[in-house]
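Whether sequence alone determines local backbone shape is best considered at the level of individual chains. In the encoding step, the backbone of a single protein was reduced to a row of integers, each denoting a local shape. For completeness, the protein is quoted in full, as a sequence line and a line of structure tokens.
***
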Amino acid sequence: MTAPARVITGIRTVSVPVTDQDQALRFYVDTLGFTVLRDEPIPTGRWIELAAGDDGVIVTLDHATTDVTRGPIMIRFTTDDAAAAHAALTGAGVDTDEVLTWPGVPPMFAFRDLDGNAFSITET
């Protein structure tokens, strides 16, 4: 049996479904510190691309519509200091869980955006 041709070569974009693109954009930029790469009108709303860091992965804020079924998403962002990131987000009113500190595993915690999408932040 021969190996299949390489079809997928990497990850460029992770899409996050949001109900209000303006509100979500403010949250991701003002609260989480993302950088806007592109914000263009499209027939279903706007095409918004954001960068969380310098790793080349783009996060898009896709307008969520009732006719599109999506499953849960899980994105693990990174930080240099999980405790400091947790304090900053909690102080900004973000819905966060406690920092998990398990032996042999980097500190991490979960948080949710304004639409209830769940993410985690793991210390590098």
Notes: Residues 21-31 form the longest helix (11 residues). The mean pLDDT is 87. The two ends are 39 Å apart (CA to CA).
